[in-house]
Amino acid sequence: MMFLLPLLSLTAAGAPTPMDSAILPGLVDVGASLPVRVELKYSSTDNFMGKDVYGPLEQCFLQKDAADMLAVAHGLLRKQHPGWNFILYDCARPRSVQLYMWEIVKDTPQQGYVANPHKPPGSIHNTGCAVDLSLWDDAAAVAVDMGTPYDFFGSKAEPRHEVELWKSGALTSTQYANRLALREVMLRAGFRILPHEWWHFDCTDGTTARKKYPVIP
After folding, report:
1. For a tag on the chain, would you pick the N or C end, based on fewer CB atoms within 10 A?
2. Which among 111, 112, 113 is positioned nearest to 103, based on CA atoms?
3. C-alpha of 19 from chain center
């Protein structure tokens, strides 16, 4: 299956601008194939940079393998928690956007939170194999409480610290259980977790992803 994904380039001022659309074989528009909620944070100013760096890119595109796995996870979630859905915050990210993000954060305290596109391995988001997401409560029309917002920079967002955070009361039992619910369906669908971001999941290990999937320009 093929979908059109707008490529981005950098203007002299450093902002992304739309170029001609390019056909990228294998990339799936997840929002068109699954009844999920898509709110790409980097396609708005509601992110840690305070800038819309995605320009016209507002759809969640993933490699077909990742999209198929997400469909399995979505089915598991709806079966176990009928009132919940996925809200997708970030998916495939063109390398041109990665370059723009790097220019914004380099030599700032946020530099460590953006993969340097000039050094291997870069970001796995550039392969379309990674997805950032959370849970959405359909009835309340709000994101489920995970203890921190998306892109929270600190130990409280890190799965590797969750047991200690729960024991200390920094994470409530409900918040911890909500993270485990998300992680369970994603892991059962075959995704891999990231130890320092509760919202980030990869469809395979980084080395395999970069060998199997081309970097999105």
Report:
1. N
2. 111
3. 23
Each residue's pLDDT tens digit, 106-153: 999 999 899 999 998 889 999 999 999 999 999 999 999 999 999 999
Give the number of domains in the chain.
1
Q: Give residue 206's identity as a one-letter amino acid code.
A: G
Indicate whether 217 belongs to any domain.
no
Rounded (10°) CA dihedral 63, 121, 154, 193: 40
194 CB neighbour count, 10 Å cutoff: 17
What pTM, to 2 d.p., does this model score? 0.89
pLDDT in tens, 1-14: 333 334 444 443 34
For the residues of 120-174, what is the DSSP string, one character each?
TT--GGGGT-EEEEEEEETTTTEE---SS-TT--SGGG-GGGHHHHHHHTSS-HH
Tokens of 191: 């995704």
Quick one: tokens of 150? 């998306």
At 32-58, the pLDDT tens digits run 999 999 999 999 999 999 999 998 889
Which of 131, 98, 102 is CA-nearest to residue 215? Answer: 98
